[in-house]
Design goal:
alpha/beta, 2 domains, 21 strands, binds adenosine-5'-diphosphate, binds alpha-D-glucopyranose
Length: about 500
Amino acid sequence: MSEKLNILFAAAEVVPFAKTGGLADVAGALPKALQKLGHNIKVVMPRYYTVETEKLEKLPAPLGVPMGIMGELWAGVYKTTLPKSKVEIYFIDYEHYFGRSGLYGDENGGYHDNDNRFVFFSKAALQLCKMLHFTPDIIHANDWHTAALPVLAKTRFVHDFAYAASVLTIHNLQHQGHFYKGVMDVMEVGWEYFNPYSLESSESVNILKGGIAEADAVTTVSKKYALEIQTPEFGFGLDGHIRVHNHKLFGILNGVDYTEWNPAVDKFLAQNYDVGNMRGKLTCKEDLQKHFHLAVRDDVPLIGFVGRFVKQKGIELIAGVINKLLDHDIQVVMLGTGEYWAEDFFSEVARFRDNFALHAGYSNELAHKIEAGSDMFLMPSLFEPCGLNQIYSLRYGTLPIVRATGGLDDTIINFDAQHKIGNGFKFYDATAEALYNTVLWAVDVYNNKKEAFQRMQKFAMQEHFSWEDSAKEYEKVYLFALQHKRGNNYEI
Ligand code: ADP
Ligand code: GLC
């Protein structure tokens, strides 16, 4: 592509500033890869309470954000660059909406004003472009939080963004932004968009649904998930709507930031290692066992889990078999936070089992140590749009045990002893039995087919899921979106 595009990239979380999950990893890495391809990209996110402002530059003038019947609200704007890059990132500062302990909610659930918070953020992102005299060719929205952007850009803000094509990436279809229809008067997109083909869903507003309808292109984070979301099983009620729009739907697998997730340079590890010298992995295993007060043994298979404790991640399947699994000579460590029942349940397991350990909470350092110190990585998700941890695991020579869904199915090649291939272990049925049998199968390979296990590790560690490749795919989607917006004569 010869023409350099102006791209506005809006996300509710961006590494290293705020993160609850993989969206932040993507938003912190993809813009850098796009800039390396020559594009002019600006990232925007809310300035949460946890984002410290000391090292940020404050823009002199406040930003006026029109909020319909609520009048105009005034936000502050901070600016810096993404680490190790020249990509500018802007923070929308509005204490009343973002000066809170959580990103989306607290122990009482989602914040009651999430509709206004993220409509405000989306509008602020567009106002920011105007303030910076930045005319985007592409407005790239992510998940429901910013899915109002495609609708806003062609309605309330059309005068300034008439030539901007919008792309919406779905990282997780489960969260759609369902709200009381009164938010229409805050969005100001016109009540004609409150119809079942756009923003309306059962008499309420569904922001993601409207975004899907109005975006010039929609992407999701793996090819398999792009197919799955068109079925009732994975569609969360939007499968029919997505099928209507599948001519503009693309699946693009996430990449990995190998400056962060790479055992050769990982600063959190007891010892670095790589495919040519695996000694350090044993040191990492020992370090992990010590950290969790497990027996320090190099011969026992150690299985790790890192992830949100929610149904999506197959947490109930794990709960269903963990005690039976722990009767075998294995060790399991889990890092996660989320549903309280799960934290309580696994804490109890940890109390009674000496080959199981839990860290209920969020710790980036421990996530890295688990990737490196484990022999296998457990990810039995019920659905998984892409999944990053299994891809990180590959680089650490930690073989994933996964359910064959979404990005897990696209990235993990099942062990095949006869043909000597594979980079992990897969099961298909979302049942505790299938999980149990697959873990035991992996354990058997670890214990009794050492050569095959090591061959898989070496293969896995040499795989490369590059952001550069993904960014090139996004370029193609941007071109598609621009042609959709500006007509077939538009050439780049
Ligand atoms: P999702 O976005 O659905 O949570 P992904 O696999 O795409 O799943 O990304 C999860 C990201 O969040 C990974 O970078 C993972 O290491 C990180 N993560 C999840 N839970 C924790 C935790 N408790 N502590 C540290 N990192 C976590
Ligand atoms: C979502 C998905 C996860 C994906 C991530 C980044 O949180 O649950 O599968 O890897 O977004 O795209």
